[in-house]
Structures are given as structure tokens and as C-alpha cells.
From TrEMBL, chain A:
Localization of this protein: Cell membrane
Residue ranges of the TM segments: 21-41, 87-111, 118-141, 147-166, 212-230, 250-271
Cellular component terms (Gene Ontology): plasma membrane
Organism in which the protein naturally occurs: Xaviernesmea oryzae
Protein name per UniProt: Peptide/nickel transport system permease protein
Similarity annotation: Belongs to the binding-protein-dependent transport system permease family.
Protein topology in the membrane: Multi-pass membrane protein
InterPro entries per record: BP-dependent_transpt_permease, MetI-like, MetI-like_sf, OppC_N
Principal location: membrane
Automatic annotation (TrEMBL), chain B:
GO molecular function: ATP binding; ATP hydrolysis activity
Protein's membrane topology: Peripheral membrane protein
GO annotations of cellular component type: plasma membrane
Name of the protein in question: Peptide/nickel transport system ATP-binding protein
Domain ABC transporter: 6-246
GO term, biological process aspect, one: peptide transport
Length: 283, 333
């Protein structure tokens, strides 16, 4: 009884904020499109190398809802496949940076002493460099590909998670339940992962949702600068960038791809707000 | 004679905070025998919790020894030693992990020590919950769903999981409602009898001491200033600080009041605040003599009641006890 009613109460609290429900709906649609892209997209083959000059540069119409690009590919289909790309990028980058960031922030805060000093100074150095510049510098060393873009972005992103976990663990490490576990003889690893980590989870979920938007935005920025997935992979950032040269005449290329980015980022941010209410996180 | 269960000998703990050194605990010696309750009393900052931490192995003494059942505890503690000492903390709201169920909290020592199979652990957790006056149904609850008193019961159950000989109770009742305090104290007394437990009971509440303890150790600024049986110390406190402590117990009736020692003086710190040499209490003590500024007195008195004071309060004689009783009679008339 307590389990399901707690879940229900949680949903009620989340749903109190109508905007976060809107965010959840947006994300649900995006996820649905991304997963079932080959079935949802009107012209799934347009995600690859297709040249169809007959229908090139068509404005939005009944046939092509969001118009076509300079080689005649359906913009809507490419945006739908672009969602796939963006979500994958965001999920992988956040998974990597949460793993690294949590391990480093947790070890620094709980072990203290020299470990703390070294780990947190390294974190500070990473934080001091603007993320886009650092990611570009890393990508400058490799040829553009989705994989390298992910690695570069995880490298700039983990310090934020390290800071977050560090702050939480520092405030918790003298709590009674931590001392109680230590007195019983629990190993540092057990204290960190079994006692402290569950208390970081709500904040990490909220941060992950918020970051999903920002990471996708950063990914789009990198693609815009030509450092993301190489063509013909449909990528929202690349589409904005390519379309920009034809503004304002063929406006739908950039604007529609930009709207796609906007919807994803907005959705994740709204959901993050709801999660914050749900977990009662202050700040 | 077998050695005492817990023996602390001349323990010191010095903390370095920046350039300052803080003597949290100075030359503390005490013993706790099997099955007895020793209360450690003193105001905040008197080193009670540091003493507890030394015994629990959270802190390592700068010098001095801690022995458990004749075995000297040095360096990293073995699991066998850890099993023998349980801890109940002061704050029931921080002592349990909010993200874990009650069953997980009580089962933690079993997990850590690898005791029992899943089913055995489950049974043991249920059994412990019953022992502390809860029931097996609380196993899957979260701490958030429990009251302060119930959480403290869970903390006691957790401390008992490994069948310890000694429980360190760090102000276990001071953040509870008075009515709940009484229940917890009764529970502790029952458990003590059932399991032949020894308690090191840290508190600043002398009312609680009287109910639960057989011996008292009075601490002031990291030193033991007086120790003895509860009866001896309540009847006839010798150290001036103990006198002040007893005089400050709030009483309900004039009857109680008549048996309290007097303290008509101002008890605030005066002069140079916290003296480094000599008796730390002398800046608050109207009875301080010159010698008090030069050295800290050795413990004097007999085995049952010892104190460290150059100018102690005279022993309460039968005559005074009778006089107090008479005074009370007159007031009533």
C-alpha cells in the first residue's frame, strides 16, 4: 500500500506544475519519434544519402510538412532522425559524466585530505575553461565523428557532476547514519556507495534532466561549427548550420531544425523543474 | 579477578585546529564493568563525545590506552572488537539513512560482518524489532514514517544486532520528549537485564543519571573531576563543579529542593576565561585557592568516591541530612 500511494503522491506533486507536465509530454513525443523514427518519418530514406533535385528547396507544403533541403530531402524526416542522434548523444555524455563525476566528487568529499585537495583542484581547472572552447580543443585533435564529440563533451561535463556530488557528500559525511555505519566497521566503499550514493540520487536525476537539454545544445553548437557527426548523418546542429547560408530565402531549413532543438531542450528543462519539486530539492 | 569490560587509562586527545591546539580530553581514566551503567556527565564541550569517539575507535587517542575485556585496542579495529561495542546516537533524525528501510538499517551490521543467510537476517531483524517494542511490520518502513522515539528504538535495535557487551549511549534521550524519554530509559533497563549489557551513558541530564546509572563520572573541560557511585555523589558531592551541577537540577517540589546542595554564587566564567594551567574550573569557582592556579589536583578520596579538588565541599553528614529533613518539616507546618 505504502509503495503505490507514495508513487501516486509523487506524481501528484510533479503534476501540480502544469509546465513540467507539458515538458514530459514534449519529451515523450520526442522519444517516441526517435525510437520509431523509421515508422514515424514520412520519408525514412531521406535520413541517408538521397538526392532528389526535382523537389529541392520546397517550402513547407502538404507533401513536405516542413519543406525540403537543397538536395530535396524532407526536413521533417531528417529532424526526426536528428532527435535520435541528439538523444543518444545526450544520454551517453551524461551517463559518462555522471559516472566519472560521482566517483571523483564522492571520493574527494568522503576521503578528504590530500585526495580531496588533488581531485577538487583538477575539477576546478576543468571548470575554469569555457566548455565549448575545451570541447573544440579536444576535437581539434581528432577527426570529427559522433564518438569523439561524445568523448569531448563528457570531458567538459563531468566536473559539474563532481561539484554537485562533492557538495552533497560533504554535508552528509558527519550525519549520524554515516558514523553509525563506520562504527560497525563498514568499508569506505560501502559507506560511499551504499549509504551516501542513494542520498545523491535525487539531485543527480534532476541535474541529469536539466543537463540533457544543455548537452544537446552544446552538441548542436559543435555540429554547427562542423565538429559533430559528419554528413550525411542527420544532425540538428549541422542542419541549422547548413541552412544558415540560405537565409532568409530558404528559411525553413534553419528555423525548423532550430525548433527541433528548442523543443528537446525546453522539454528537459521543464521536466527538471518538476523533478526538483518532486524531490524537494532546495535551490 | 577478571579484567573490567572497558578500561580507559590516562587517555589524551589533542586536536590541532590551524595553529591552535585543543586538549579535548586530558588524562581520562575510567572503567566499566560487565552489566553496569556508568554515566558520564558534563556540560557541552567537556569532552564527553570525544571520550565516546576514543572508545568507539572513531578517534585514536594521542596518548593513553583503551582496553576491552583485557585486550588493548590499538590501530585498526578488528571486526570481532567492533561487534562487541554498539553505538546509540543523540539525534534520532540523523541516525537513520532516509533512503533506507528500517530493516536495511538494522541489517547493516549483519551485512558488514557477513552474519547469517538472507532468511536468518530477516528473522533476526524481526526479532530485534520486537525486542525494542516495535514489530516486524516496521521492517519495510522508511525512517520518515517513524516518530523520534520509534527511530531511537530502531537505533537501539541496530546497536544490538551483533550481540555486543557494551553500548555507548551518546545522549540517547536528550532530543526526545520527556514522556518518550521515560519509555526509552525503561527499554534500556530491560534490555540491560536481559542481555547483561554494560552501558556507557553520556548525558548532561542528572535526572536521567539517577534513574539509570550505578556510577557517575563527572567531566569538566576534558578532565574527570569527580567519580563515584550515584548514591555517594548525589548525597555528598565533593567537587565544586559537581556541587554546581546538582544545585542546577530543576526540581518540582520543595521536598526535592531541600536535598539539593546550595549554589548561591554567580556561575559564569569570570577573569581570564579558560585557564591553561591548574584546575580549569577555578575561574568559575568561589572556593579557588592559590594552589588551584598552579596544578591540577590528583584524584583523592576512597575507591567508591573520588574527586580532584583542593578545597572540596565538606562531606554531607548524617546531621546535615537530618537538618534538611527538619527544615522541610518546618516549611510544611
Amino acid at each position: 500500500m505504502s509503495q503505490s500511494s507514495a508513487r501516486w503522491r509523487g506524481w501528484r506533486r510533479f503534476a501540480r506544475n502544469k509546465l513540467s507536465v507539458l515538458g514530459a509530454v514534449l519529451i515523450a513525443i520526442v522519444f517516441f519519434c526517435a525510437i520509431f523514427a523509421p515508422y514515424v518519418a514520412p520519408y525514412p530514406e531521406h535520413a541517408g544519402v538521397v538526392v532528389n533535385f526535382l523537389d529541392a528547396n520546397q517550402p513547407p507544403s502538404a507533401k513536405y510538412w516542413l519543406g525540403t533541403d537543397t538536395v530535396g530531402r524532407d526536413v521533417l524526416s531528417r529532424i526526426i532522425f536528428g532527435f535520435r542522434n541528439s538523444l543518444m548523444l545526450g544520454a551517453v555524455v551524461i551517463a559518462i559524466s555522471i559516472t566519472i563525476g560521482t566517483a571523483i566528487g564522492m571520493a574527494a568529499a568522503y576521503l578528504g585530505g590530500k585526495t580531496e585537495l588533488v581531485l577538487m583542484r583538477i575539477t576546478d581547472i576543468f571548470l575554469a575553461i569555457p566548455s565549448l572552447v575545451l570541447a573544440m580543443a579536444i576535437l581539434g585533435l581528432a577527426k570529427p565523428s559522433q564518438l569523439y564529440a561524445m568523448i569531448a563533451m563528457a570531458t567538459v561535463w563531468w566536473p559539474w557532476h563532481a561539484r554537485l556530488v562533492y557538495g552533497i557528500v560533504r554535508s552528509l559525511k558527519y550525519e549520524g547514519f554515516v558514523v553509525a555505519a563506520e562504527v560497525v566497521g563498514a568499508s569506505p566503499l560501502r559507506v560511499m556507495f551504499s549509504e551516501l550514493l542513494p542520498n545523491c540520487a535525487p539531485n543527480l536525476f534532476t541535474k541529469a534532466s536539466l543537463d540533457m537539454g544543455f548537452v544537446i545544445l552544446l552538441g548542436a553548437s559543435l555540429s554547427f561549427l562542423g565538429m559533430g557527426a559528419p554528413p550525411p548523418t542527420p544532425d540538428l546542429g549541422t542542419m541549422v548550420s547548413e541552412g544558415a547560408q540560405y537565409l532568409p530565402d530558404i528559411w525553413w531549413l534553419s528555423v525548423m531544425a532550430g525548433m527541433g532543438i528548442f523543443i528537446v531542450v525546453l522539454g528537459f528543462n521543464l521536466v527538471a523543474d518538476g523533478l526538483r519539486d518532486l524531490f524537494d530539492i532546495v535551490g | 579477578m577478571s579484567p573490567p569490560l572497558l578500561k580507559v587509562t590516562k587517555a589524551n586527545k589533542v586536536f590541532h585546529v590551524g595553529s591552535a591546539t585543543v586538549h579535548a580530553v586530558t588524562d581520562i581514566s575510567l572503567t566499566v564493568n560487565k552489566g553496569e551503567t556508568v554515566a558520564v556527565v558534563g556540560e557541552s564541550g567537556s569532552g564527553k563525545t570525544t571520550l565516546a569517539n576514543l572508545i568507539l575507535g572513531i578517534e585514536i587517542p594521542t596518548s593513553g590506552e583503551v582496553e576491552l575485556a583485557g585486550e588493548q585496542l590499538k590501530g585498526r579495529r578488528s571486526k570481532t572488537v567492533r561487534r562487541k561495542i554498539g553505538l546509540v546516537q543523540q539525534n534520532p533524525y540523523s541516525t537513520l539513512n532516509p533512503r533506507k528501510s528500517i530493516g536495511q538499517a538494522i541489517g547493516l551490521p549483519l551485512d558488514v560482518h557477513g552474519i547469517g543467510s538472507r532468511a536468518e537476517r530477516r528473522r533476526r531483524i524481526g526479532e530485534l524489532l520486537e525486542k525494542v517494542g516495535l514489530n516486524a511490520g516496521h521492517r519495510d518502513r522508511r525512517p520518515l514514517a517513524l516518530s523520534g522515539g520509534q527511530r531511537q528504538r530502531v537505533a537501539i535495535a541496530r546497536a544490538l544486532t551483533t550481540n555486543p557487551d557494551l553500548l555507548v549511549l551518546d545522549e540517547p534521550t536528550s532530543s526526545l520528549d520527556v514522556s518518550v524519554q521515560a519509555h526509552i530509559l525503561r527499554l534500556l533497563r530491560d534490555l540491560q537485564q536481559e542481555f547483561d549489557l554494560a552501558y556507557l551513558f553520556i548525558t548532561h541530564d542528572l535526572g536521567v543519571v539517577r534513574v539509570i546509572a550505578s556510577r557517575v563520572v563527572v567531566m569538566y573541560r576534558g578532565r574527570v573531576v569527580e567519580e563515584g557511585s550515584v548514591a555517594a555523589i548525589f548525597r555528598s558531592p565533593r567537587h565544586r563543579y559537581t556541587q554546581l551541577l546538582l544545585a542546577s537540577i530543576p526540581t518540582v517540589s520543595e521536598e526535592d529542593d531541600a536535598f539539593k546542595p546550595d549554589w548561591p554564587w554567580d556561575a559564569d566564567v569570570k577573569g581570564d576565561g579558560d585557564p591553561a594551567e591548574g584546575c580549569p574550573f577555578r575561574s568559575r569557582c568561589p572556593f579557588a585557592v592559590e594552589r588551584c592556579g598552579q596544578e591540577f589536583p590528583d584524584m583523592r578520596g576512597s575507591g567508591d568516591h573520588r574527586y580532584a579538588c583542593f578545597n572540596p565541599r565538606p562531606e554531607t553528614s548524617e546531621a546535615i541530612v537530618n537538618l534538611q529533613a527538619e527544615k522541610l518539616e518546618r516549611k510544611k507546618a
